[in-house]
Each structure stands twice: as structure tokens, then as C-alpha cells.
Design a protein that fits this description.
Elements (H helix, E strand, L loop, with lengths): L2 H5 L3 H7 L1 E2 L2 E2 L2 E6 L1 E6 H6 L8 H17 L5 E4 L6 H12 L15 H17 L2 H4 L3 H10 L2 E7 L8 E4 L11 E2 L1 E5 L7 H14 L2 H9 L14 H4 L4 H6 L2 E2 L9 H16 L5 H12 L1 E2 L10 H19 L17 H15 L11 H28 L6 H8 L1 H20 L3 E8 L3 E8 L2 H16 L7
Parallel strand pairs: 5-6, 8-10, 11-13
Antiparallel strand pairs: 1-2, 3-9, 4-6, 4-7, 12-13
Helix pairs in contact: 4-6, 5-6, 5-13, 13-14, 16-17, 17-19, 19-20
Length: about 475
């Protein structure tokens, strides 16, 4: 498709609903949004305006519903449209998105104070302005409440119908200027084909279906929302539809491509949120259950959840410090007899090996990556070599039966050590090629952690060879 054709579309909508694995896979044939319906007859009667914030909506509805009840009129303050299906999920996401701090902010994390405040407000509105039955009601009942004017405010999809009771606006927010609405609709994509004739015909049809001309026609005839913003800048369009409504909507795309199984995640998300809103389950427990479904845990220096990471690093740092200071004993005459087993340079090599292996814990801190997996194995290999080879050299040259090979090893200790480091270099070079995958496993009350799994058979073979060389070498010394 020509770049200028794709560039017509709202980049925000495309990035949130049409991109899979960093590739654009389709264009929206139509979009829909949840919006706020406000009973302008009742608002005018009580000299109130369409609310810009959720707190204003709550206070306005609480007052008007109370006054109407005094007159013997039964109306509902707000319908959250929290059906026990994907519609309810969209409603919750729209509400939470309207609780971010600024227009430029992303969706608040489910455990953030913004999300917590948003869920508390949903429950407050449900308990104070409606009931479980109204919030869980069907689209048909929601539509009926709008047609009969029996509801003051309601969350609903954007439908064009002649209704003198209601004004349609974007969602309120935690503060004025903040809104949110989940992107709903259908995308259209092109199937892969090698047949040039079919490919060209498909491109022509696709270009027409997603063209500005056809989208404009649909908008003017009040069939759809279009994701081509320039349509809502034209006087011809704005004279027939509410362009201000479209321009004020702040869209959010559900995380359909960010989880392995969105349907399962959506069910889990909805059940837990509804446990809090309708079944009075602990909010902290609900949020933890939702977060644990997709959250990958890792060792962190942040002590908010556990001190294990910070304590481990402190212990390692203290041990490294004292090990480093202890090197001074190698050069004190009083203690030289204690260290006569190895020469000073070999003791330093032993020290480096211990420090490398000990401080390898740094590769376990933070989010797991394949690079850290490779670095972890490289450091272990090099560190063990530094530990083993000096002692191996000492054992070989101390062998009671001498021969030319042992004499050569005794006279060329640095070359002997270099042979092992050369083997390590070859092994580590293999690990510079991506040889690890991250595998998600559940431990500790179904919390997800990522572990390093060697994905290459060659890497496994080289690693085994490296281990064998270090273990078997003492056994092949000629007698």
C-alpha cells in the first residue's frame, strides 16, 4: 500500500489496534467508541451542565436523583455498562484510561494509585447512583433506558438516533481535559498470495474499502466512526455530524497482542475486577491476581516487595571488599609461609575467579534478557577457569613421577593457563551468538519468572566439552 494512503489514518489508533509484532497488519474498516449520554432535559431543569470529571458526574447525579425521588420519579444516576462479557472489559478499560494524570500518559498500571482510585470511583458510582442489576444489565435494557429518558447519565456506544433527551459527549475524566474510550470495531487485512493478478485486484479492492472517499461517505450517512482524522476537519462533514465529539475522544486499544492468550486474560481480568465491584472482594487481592497473570517477576534492588535483591548485593559487595583487602597478606612476610602452596600471581588469579563468580549475581538482577543469560554463563566459565587452573597446575607439577610434559608445564605455566583461556574464548564466542531463549515458568504461588534455556544444540555441546576438559584433565596426566 502507498505510504500516503496509510498516513491518512490516525497513528494512535493504528499503533494500538493494527500493529502485531511491530508490523502493521491491517487498517480499521470502522471504529466505535464508548461515550457519555447525558440527559439534557434533567440537567437543564436543575441548572446543571454536562460533567467534565467523574467527581462532578457523581455529585450532579446524586443531587438530581435525590430531587427526583422527592417528586416520586424513579430515575437512575448512571449505567456503567459493566456486562459480564467483553463489553464490560471495554467499559473498565475506558474508565481506567480516563484516570491517567495527563493526556500524554499511557494506561495506568493496574497496581498504580491511578488505577486504584479509578476502580474505587467505579464502585462508588455503582453503590451511590445505581445498583448491580443496572450496571450488569444488557445492551437492550441500556438502550431502553436511553429511549425512555429513565437514566441521567450512561456509558454507551455511539449510535445515531433521534432522541431529544440526550447529549452525547466524550467520557469524563479524573480531571477536566482527561478522557478515555476503548477502541472497538473491525480491521481489514489482505491475505498473502503469489498470484500477481489476484494481488493487484486485492490491492484495488482494499484501497477502495479503506479510501477516504468511502470512509467519508459512511461518516456522513452516520454509519461509522472513521479513523481518518482529516475527515472531521471538513465543513461538509461537520455540518452533518458531531466533529467535536470525535476530536475530543481519547482512544485506548485493549492489550490484544500483548498477552499470549487475550481471551483467557480478558476473562481473568473481568472476573477479578467484578469480584471487587460487585462481590466486595479485597481490592489489593484483586489487583494482585490481575497483575500476577501477566507480570514477570525478577530479582530487584527495589525493597517495595522484597529485600532479597538488595541484601544479596550488599553481602556480595562486602565479601568482595574484604577479599580485595585480604590480598595485602600475600605481600606481608609474616604470612608468606601460609600462601606457599601457590605463587602470588596464581593466588591473584584465584581471587579474580572468586570475585567473578561471586559478582555474577549482578546478571540475575533486573529483567531477564538473552544477553544477560549469555553473560551469566560466560562469567561462570571464566571464573571457574580462574579457580581451577592454578590448582590444577600445582597438582600436575607436584606429581611424584616426572616426565617431559610435566617439566614443560612447570616451565611454561602461563602458556599452560592460556590454553584453558583459549578454550574458554572459543566457548564464549559461541555464546556471543544468540543461544538462549527465555522460558516463562510459574513458581511461588503461581508467580511467573523467566529462566534461561539453551536453545542451540551446538552451544550445549561446546558447554559440555568445556566442562569435560576441566574435569578430565587431571586424569590424563602421563605417568
Amino acid at each position: 500500500m502507498p505510504k500516503e494512503h496509510i498516513d491518512m489514518y490516525d497513528k494512535n489508533v493504528l499503533s494500538q489496534s493494527c500493529v502485531y509484532k511491530n508490523k502493521l497488519v491491517g487498517l480499521p474498516i470502522y471504529t466505535d467508541y464508548q461515550v457519555l449520554y447525558s440527559n439534557k432535559i434533567l440537567l437543564s431543569q436543575y441548572n446543571k451542565t454536562v460533567p467534565k470529571t467523574w467527581e462532578e458526574l457523581y455529585n450532579t447525579a446524586k443531587y438530581i436523583v435525590g430531587e427526583e425521588k422527592k417528586k416520586g420519579n424513579e430515575i437512575y444516576g448512571y449505567n456503567g455498562l459493566l456486562q459480564d462479557n467483553e463489553v464490560g472489559v471495554c467499559s473498565v478499560y475506558s474508565f481506567l484510561f480516563s484516570y491517567r494524570n495527563s493526556v500524554a500518559d499511557a494506561m495506568p498500571k493496574i497496581t498504580s494509585k491511578e488505577a486504584i482510585n479509578g476502580l474505587k470511583m467505579i464502585k462508588k458510582i455503582k453503590d451511590g447512583l445505581a445498583s448491580n442489576d443496572i450496571f450488569l444489565s444488557s445492551l437492550e435494557l441500556g438502550y431502553e433506558l436511553i429511549l425512555t429518558g429513565k437514566i441521567l447519565f450512561t456509558n454507551f456506544f455511539y449510535y445515531i438516533f433521534n432522541n431529544p433527551y440526550y447529549e452525547i459527549t466524550a467520557y469524563p475524566g479524573v480531571k477536566e481535559g482527561i478522557s478515555g474510550s476503548t477502541i472497538i470495531g473491525n480491521n481489514i487485512a489482505m491475505g498473502y498470495t503469489t498470484d500477481e493478478e489476484r494481488k493487484n485486484a486485492t490491492i484495488i479492492a482494499y484501497s477502495y474499502l479503506t479510501s477516504k472517499e468511502l470512509q467519508k461517505e459512511f461518516v456522513i450517512n452516520k454509519y461509522i466512526f472513521s479513523s481518518i482524522p482529516s475527515i472531521y476537519q471538513e465543513n461538509e462533514v461537520c455540518s452533518k455530524v458531531n466533529c467535536n465529539l470525535y476530536n475530543s475522544i481519547q482512544p485506548f486499544g485493549r492489550p490484544t497482542f500483548n498477552v499470549d492468550d487475550y481471551d483467557a486474560f480478558s476473562d481473568h481480568f473481568r472476573v477479578n475486577v467484578f469480584d471487587y465491584i460487585f462481590r466486595n472482594k479485597s481490592l489489593n487481592e484483586v489487583l494482585r491476581n490481575i497483575d500476577d497473570y501477566t507480570r514477570v517477576y525478577y530479582i530487584s534492588l527495589d525493597t517495595e516487595e522484597t529485600v532479597i535483591g538488595l541484601v544479596s548485593i550488599i553481602v556480595v559487595s562486602v565479601l568482595t571488599f574484604f577479599m580485595t583487602i585480604s590480598l595485602i597478606f600475600l605481600y606481608l612476610k609474616k604470612y608468606k609461609p601460609i600462601f606457599k602452596f601457590l605463587t602470588s600471581d596464581f593466588w591473584i588469579l584465584e581471587y579474580l575467579g572468586n570475585v567473578i563468580v561471586l559478582n555474577n549475581i549482578w546478571t540475575e538482577i533486573g529483567k531477564r534478557t538473552t544477553f544477560l543469560c549469555d553473560l551469566n554463563r560466560i562469567l561462570i566459565i571464566v571464573g571457574i577457569t580462574c579457580n581451577i587452573v592454578p590448582i590444577l597446575h600445582k597438582l600436575i607439577i607436584s606429581f611424584p613421577v616426572q616426565n617431559n610434559i610435566i617439566k614443560w608445564i612447570n616451565d611454561h605455566k602461563y602458556i599452560f593457563i592460556s590454553i584453558f583461556f583459549l578454550i574458554d574464548l572459543m566457548t564464549c564466542t559461541i555464546f556471543l551468538i544468540p543461544s538462549y531463549n527465555l522460558k516463562k515458568d510459574k513458581y511461588d504461588e503461581d508467580k511467573i519468572y523467566e529462566t534461561c534455556i539453551i536453545s542451540s544444540k551446538y552451544a550445549k555441546a561446546i558447554l559440555i566439552f568445556n566442562i569435560i576438559v576441566k574435569i578430565v584433565n587431571p586424569q590424563i596426566i602421563p605417568k
